[in-house]
Design a protein that fits this description.
184 residues, OB fold (Dihydrolipoamide Acetyltransferase, E2P), 2 domains, 6-stranded mixed sheet, globular
Length: 184
Amino acid sequence: MLNQCLTVQRIFARTLYALSLAAMLGPVASTWAESTSASRELTEPLVFIKAFDGDSMVLRNSRGKTVQVRLVGIDAPEKNQAHGQAARERLESLLNAEPIEAKAVKRDGHGRWIAQLSVGGRDIGHTMLVEGHAWYFRRYRADLTVSARARYEEAEAVAREERRGLWASDEEPIPPWRYREKRR
């Protein structure tokens, strides 16, 4: 009877250990699987297909697969929102220039890749902020590196101060997240 109790305790202890190990490795395994998928889908050079608005687009990878991507760290006006058309057109002009490089961060709830895109070494999200076509999306700042957070914060502040893009109007622009909330 004592041996049976010890055996049950060992099995219980091993099961507990395995569960705790799985819980710890689950996020790592998930992140690894996602990064492996990103490396397959966001293979370079990427080619621009179309923009939905000033921060979301469709790209084609080197294997011919289309991929939906959203720029990390910014939120541009929606297409039917004030300055939405101008933001979309500017994003299109930036991405039409050369092959696009991507650093995938994660997938969002819509299945799009959240990624930092650059063309010729130029960070597209940062450029959209500098020119006043988007807000720094503070809600998702953890998706950016610490240095990128500071650059993005500064870029939006300068655009506001110099009244560039959507900040040129005398009226305070409505942030896209508030615009989306009102439409629900």
